[in-house]
Amino acid sequence: MWLLCTGLLGLTAISHSPAANAQTTLRVLQMNLCNSGLAGCYEGGRSINEAYSRITGQRPDIVTLNEICSQDVARLWEAMASVWPGQVGDATIGKTFAFAPAWNGNTNQSYKCANGDEFGNGIIWHSPDPTGLRMSGRYANQDSGAEKRSWQCVQILPNGPYACVTHLSAASESVALAQCNELMSHVVTMTSGVLPAIVGGDFNLEYDTADPENVQRCVPARYYRKGDGDVQHFI
């Protein structure tokens, strides 16, 4: 499952424009790759090759990734490097990818893929300066299942904007909505309500005004949401 969204945001930090409030087009790509090796939707790792092709074909500025193994994020960073040479960092100053594992409540360790890698959420971006802040965490609100959900945020440049990725509870829409509100509260705090931010992921919530767990209920003031007509969204 994948979702590409293109929009205009006030992202002077990556526009390289001299105008104080210039706007630029930001292309963001969201993919749930189902690549743990444990779920019924797993297809022998083929989703990683497809994701690589999506990145090189779409040339996104930001890629948010769910249900992925940690080493796969590093592999897909290579796709970003191929389309944004010189804009993805290096081993000395850091590379423009980050990963946040889910937590296994049964083992009290990070959740693992079938191959032993950590399992969770990844984010890849391009930037001339990959040294911005990186923050991650696990939700206080969790369902009763073993997999405890997490989030990851990065500052694309040291002075903003921010980009975040998450995968919310699949077992309970009420928990998923609580997690969504929890994350957006973090985002508003991190950005001081001023810097731009974008959150992508599999929210396991639909846009449905008749549903008390409508995903729109976690969209803060001054933010907007775009989705795939199902459960993947950008805020």
Brief write-up:
The protein is an alpha+beta fold. It has helices at 12-15, 46-58, 70-83, 173-190, and strands spanning 2-9, 24-32, 62-69, 89-90, 94-95, 97-101, 103-104, 109-110, 119-125, 134-138, 147-148, 150-155, 162-167, 197-202, 226-227, 232-234. Strand 13, helix 4 (173-190) and strand 14 form a beta-alpha-beta unit.
How many strands, what sense, and barrel or not for the largest sheet?
A: 6 strands, mixed
Terminal CA distance: 18 Å
- Spell out the helices and strands N to C: EHEHEHEEEEEEEEEEHEEE
Per the principal axes of the C-alpha atoms, what is the gross shape?
globular
Q: Give the strand order of the largest sheet, numbering strands 1, 2, ... along the chain.
A: 10-12-13-14-16-15
Care to count the β-strands? 16
Contiguous uncertain segments of 5+ residues: 8-21
Quaternary assembly: single chain
State the helicity in percent bands.
Answer: 10-25%
Into which percentage range does the β-strand content fall? 25-35%
Summed up, the helix count is 4
The averaged pLDDT comes out at 88
Computed over alpha carbons, the radius of gyration is 17 Å
Can you describe what's shown?
The structure is a single chain. The protein has 235 residues and is of the alpha+beta class. The protein has four helices and 16 strands. The protein has helices spanning 12-15, 46-58, 70-83, 173-190; strands at 2-9, 24-32, 62-69, 89-90, 94-95, 97-101, 103-104, 109-110, 119-125, 134-138, 147-148, 150-155, 162-167, 197-202, 226-227, 232-234. It has a six-stranded mixed beta sheet, covered by helices on one side. A five-stranded mixed beta sheet has the order 1-2-3-9-6. The protein has a three-stranded antiparallel beta sheet with strand order 8-7-11, with no helix packed on it. Helix 2 packs parallel to helix 3 (70-83). The longest helix has 18 residues, at 173-190. Mean pLDDT is 88; it is low at 8-21.
